[in-house]
Amino acid sequence: MLLGVAQGDTEDDARKLADKIAALRIFEDEQGKMNLDVSEIGGRMLVVSQFTLMADCRKGRRPSFVGAAPPEEAQRLYQVFTEAVAARGVGVATGQFQEHMHVELVNDGPVTILLDSEDLSRPRR
User: Fold this and answer.
1) Which pLDDT score is estimated for 2?
2) Secondary structure, 3-state, the chain
3) Which pLDDT value is given to residue 122?
């Protein structure tokens, strides 16, 4: 999973997001329905810090990254997030924070889910 940390994100946000993601029933059961979470399939999480998720492309032609948390704060919250996932009993592997990495991703199926910690605090409509 790719994790971006925005300015204003808190430890509480990181923990809530970790709990939500670890509990998401996004893996198929015997009937082919998305009904199992990562621990139920014996899976692990690879968590890669990705500040470019904070890109704002609304103006001009060059993305702005002013909404991304400063590196020290982002790294601290990245650590809080990975520790919270591990505390749920899910194995966690991490990338190297602030390093240029080559990451291969296989998207198995037509599902990509975007979660924002800000959205977890809003009441449902």
Assistant:
1) 93
2) CEECCECCCCHHHHHHHHHHHHHCCCEECCCCCEEECCHHHCCEEEEEECHHHHCECCCCCCCECCCECCHHHHHHHHHHHHHHHHHCCCEEEECCCCCCCCCCCCCCCCCCCCCCHHHHHCCCC
3) 64
Q: What is the pLDDT, as a whole number, of residue 119?
A: 81
Q: Which two tokens stand for residue 6?
A: 């925005």
Note the pLDDT of residue 95.
84
β-pairing, 34-36 with 27-28?
A: antiparallel
Alpha carbon distance 108, 101 (integer Å): 22
Q: How is the chain split into domains, by residue range? A: 2-121
Cα–Cα separations (whole angstroms), residue 62 to 9, 41, 75: 24, 41, 25
Residue with tokens 């977890």: 120
Enumerate the active-site residues.
Answer: 50-52
**The CATH number of the domain covering residues in 2-121:** 3.50.80.10
Provide the whole-model pTM: 0.89
Residue written as tokens 């919270």? 84
